[in-house]
Design a protein that fits this description.
heterodimer; A: mainly beta; four-stranded antiparallel β-sheet; 13 strands; B: 113 residues; mainly beta; six-stranded mixed β-sheet; globular
């Protein structure tokens, strides 16, 4: 169990640029989640995958955001035409779904995005 | 839809004193409850969880929490805190059989010498 890893740890970009983040979940976990955390707030749910299928997207996720999980392994989160309001910590988490049991979330250390 | 309220945004406490971090949730169905801790510049770590069974659950680092269904609460306690417990603590809820975990806004625990 090598844990959930996210890359990069920090990203500074200019308004209007596109950015892409990567998440590698724990290998045997079939569920993958993206959350966003701003200063002084708890993580807010963005989207989740069961294997390679994206099963729900939050209304927080505008059309500028897209997430993929090809082959049910790693995932990418892309933000197009970034805005200053996108500045936040983007967290990835994974869990194992077995029958009706869903294991607790295991989080990565996050990618901190700063849009200037 | 489920929601989580953490009643205190900050809790200052002296070392070796007891502490309670309060959490209330709302849901119309059965729930799983969690406490996560986030140390500075680190990711969230699971502190403890309630899935079913005994309403008193014990976690890592001497923390425990009690599920109270009638009061829809899941307060976190520790009888004697250490400086190293200084961190942000998040209460979270997942509806039974569901997929989405919802987090509270967090409580910053600050332990003073």
């Amino acid at each position: 169990d090598t844990g959930v890893s996210q890359d990069p740890r920090h990203k500074i970009t200019k308004r209007g640029q596109n950015v892409t983040f990567r998440c590698d979940p724990i290998s045997e976990h079939n569920r993958l989640y993206w959350y966003r955390q701003t200063l002084g707030q708890g993580p807010e749910f963005l989207t989740y995958f069961q294997n390679e299928a994206q099963l729900e997207k939050s209304r927080l996720l505008s059309d500028r955001f897209s997430a993929e999980r090809p082959k049910g392994s790693f995932s990418t989160l892309e933000i197009q035409r970034t805005e200053q309001g996108d500045s936040a910590m983007y967290l990835c988490a994974s869990s194992l779904r077995q029958g009706i049991y869903n294991s607790p979330l295991h989080f990565g250390n996050g990618t901190r995005l700063t849009v200037t | 839809a489920q929601s989580v309220t953490q009643l205190d945004s900050q809790v200052p406490v002296f070392e070796e004193a007891p502490v309670e971090l309060r959490c209330n949730y709302s849901s119309s169905v059965s729930v799983y409850l969690f406490w996560y801790v986030q140390y500075p510049n680190q990711g969230l770590q699971l502190l403890l969880k309630y899935l079913s069974g005994s309403t008193l659950v014990k976690g890592i680092n001497g923390f425990e929490a009690e599920f109270n269904k009638s009061q829809t609460s899941f307060h976190l306690r520790k009888p004697s805190v250490h400086i190293s417990d200084t961190a942000e603590y998040f209460c979270a809820v997942t509806e039974g059989g569901g997929f989405k975990t919802i987090f509270g806004a967090g409580t910053r625990l600050f332990v003073k010498a």
